[in-house]
Design brief:
The protein is α+β, with helices and mostly antiparallel strands. It has two domains: 107 residues, 3-Layer(aba) Sandwich (Rossmann fold); 133 residues, Probable inorganic polyphosphate/atp-NAD kinase, domain 2 (Tumour Suppressor Smad4). The chain is elongated, with a radius of gyration of 19 Å.
Length: 251
């Protein structure tokens, strides 16, 4: 089994990479059988983005602070563990938008696509779902569309729902909503197309953030599931992502 490594810059992750390469060899990431991510959840997201468009599965070892998407940093019998690992297939989100200068942008996000106010001014955003207006004006710090894999991350911190992996749903979650004051968001079909239009974009500038990519001064963005993209994460037996998402609701 050909392994490649995607490691954080921290000393323990780099040392683990050197040990693993000595024990199991190191292949080029472009033609490996499994990519090993060494770090925290951010490193896992970077590793998944690096294999976007390929069928290479990613197995993570936690050398970060939370490591929700990672396995324990156990270097023993790695090949056997990879051969018996449980697979989780996910589809990222695709965000396509335009900024106030007329420039277009496109990005893929594994966890969520967020719209965030850039200044002291509250963001005002119109929400359309599948071509139908559902909210003419949301006044808030922002709003996000989150996948099941990302539902326990920023979405959960913003009081959004945790979504089981096989639920085929997306979370639409406001960030510090001011008007409507008690609106808590919505659960949407995974096939839904969400259009978010920034109202008064010059006076109330808003940025779009898709995982680790940011686009400033957005005017409009459409978010939907990228059904043509499939990413695979590997987990040790008993540590599958759907089980961890379930446990998170009883923590």
């Amino acid at each position: 089994m050909r392994l490649a490594y995607h490691a954080a810059d921290r000393d323990d992750a780099q040392a683990a990479k050197a040990r693993l390469a000595e024990l199991y060899g190191e292949a080029n990431s472009a033609d490996c059988d499994v990519l090993i991510a060494l770090g925290g959840d951010g490193v896992m997201l970077d590793a998944l983005h690096s294999v976007m468009g390929r069928s290479t599965p990613v197995y993570g070892m936690n050398f970060g602070s939370v490591g929700f998407l990672m396995n324990e940093p156990n270097e023993d019998d790695l090949i056997a563990r990879l051969q018996s690992a449980e697979r989780t297939d996910i589809h990222p989100l695709r965000a396509v938008g335009r900024d106030t200068s007329g420039q277009t942008f496109e990005a893929l996000a594994i966890n969520e696509v967020s719209l965030l106010r850039e200044t002291r001014q509250t963001a005002k955003i119109r929400i359309q779902i599948d071509g139908r207006e559902r909210l003419s004006e949301l006044a808030a710090d922002g709003i996000m569309v989150a996948t099941p894999a990302g539902s326990t991350a920023y979405n959960y911190s913003a009081h959004g729902p945790i979504i089981p992996m096989n639920a085929q749903l997306l979370a639409l979650t406001p960030i510090s909503a001011f008007r409507p004051r008690r609106w808590r968001g919505a659960l949407l079909r995974h096939s839904s197309k969400v259009r978010l239009d920034v109202l008064e974009p010059k006076k109330r500038p808003v940025s779009v953030v898709a995982d680790n990519q940011e686009f400033r001064d957005a005017e409009t963005v459409t978010v939907c599931e990228a059904a043509d993209k499939t990413l695979t994460m590997l987990f040790d037996r008993g540590r599958a992502l759907d089980e961890r998402i379930l446990l998170e609701q009883f923590a």
